[in-house]
Amino acid sequence: MNIENMDFEQVEQRSAELEAKLSEDNADFDAIETEIKALEERKAVLNREVEERKAMVQDVLTNAKTIETFTKEEVHKKMELRELRNTPEYIDAFAEYIKGNKKEMRTLLTENAVIGGGGEEEATTGDIAVPSIVEDRIWTDWMNTPLLARIRKVYVKGNYRVGYEASASGAVIHKEGTDAPKEEELSIQYIDFISEYLKKWIKVSDTVLALRGQAFLDYIFDEFGHQIALALENYIVAEIIASNLTPKVTVSAMDSKTVLAGIARLSDEAINPVAIMSKSTYATIAGERTTAGARIENPFEGLEVLFNNTVTGVLVGDLDGVVANFPDGMDFKFVVDEYSLAEYDLVKIIGKLLFSAHLVRPNGFVQVKTE
Q: Where are the chain's structural domains?
């Protein structure tokens, strides 16, 4: 596909593929750099288009127009799919689609097929675009989770492989007239990203299922959004701890030297380290500042502290060394089961997110714990 025709996810996917190619033997760095620049330019164009469309939507809201009051020319001009999914009609149809009622969405997209949206075929066989208000809500949940906000995210369909430099001989000074230096001894290892579903399900009453539009979406995303983000954060913490790229350092106690012990083992590529710990561990370490006679200004060495109560000891490292792949995007999918608990007037709603995540940087994190 030509770069000028790519959307955001395709740009991110191709960027991830190029990043993986950088670790390959005989990589054409000039060609890769040229394509990366072209992808950045495409991303800038897409960002400008988003701003223009936001301005259009605001203009529509300001003038209090609805879909029905647009002229045909205005519809063609203003109502591409990205604008259509901002409308109350689309939000209502999407809420019904989650419940398993596809008729409203199929009708809406079919009627607007001339202006984009895929028509009836998309409404019955493909993924349905998430309303912007829902997409923004997912991003807000995740960006309010400091750990998730800092990891690298890619959107590669299927399985994904990332190479990392396990070991390499360093560069040397070559004096004129002396023998050529030895070839670099380079060892490349690979990490396979095989995606799995993260799921949460709840039982709701027929009364909840009867909610329409925004009210139903608010209920669903209050239940699922934060909890799925929290579960993903806990998964990433566990993955960092379990990784063989994370060295373990043992100390006699959690004290003002704990974070220093972690920093000492970090690689040079861990540029922006943070400290991840439970609130209990934080209180233990911070408590030294109040100890009689202690003169400790900052026992965390100026690092930002992120809280996660599943951490044993302290994790010190740079979250940029963690990569998460979302093959279907970051919006989660829903399955509605109206039948298995029908005799109790209850309905099961299952939310699921396809992802994989790994630490890909040796010594990008260090776990400091007591004996």
A: 3-129, 130-170+185-371
Q: With bands split at pLDDT 50, 70 and 90, how would you rate the model's confidence at 108?
A: low
> 277: phi > 0 → left, psi -120 to 50 → alpha, else beta; which?
beta
Residue 284 scores a pLDDT above 50: yes
Q: pLDDT tens for residues 35-52?
A: 888 888 888 887 777 676
Domain boundaries 130-170+185-371, CATH class: alpha beta
Cut 0.70: pTM above it: no
Closest CA relative to residue 237, chosen from 276, 191, 271, 265:
276
Given a cut of 90, whether residue 321 has pLDDT beyond it is yes
pLDDT band at 271 (very low <50, low <70, confident <90, very high): very high
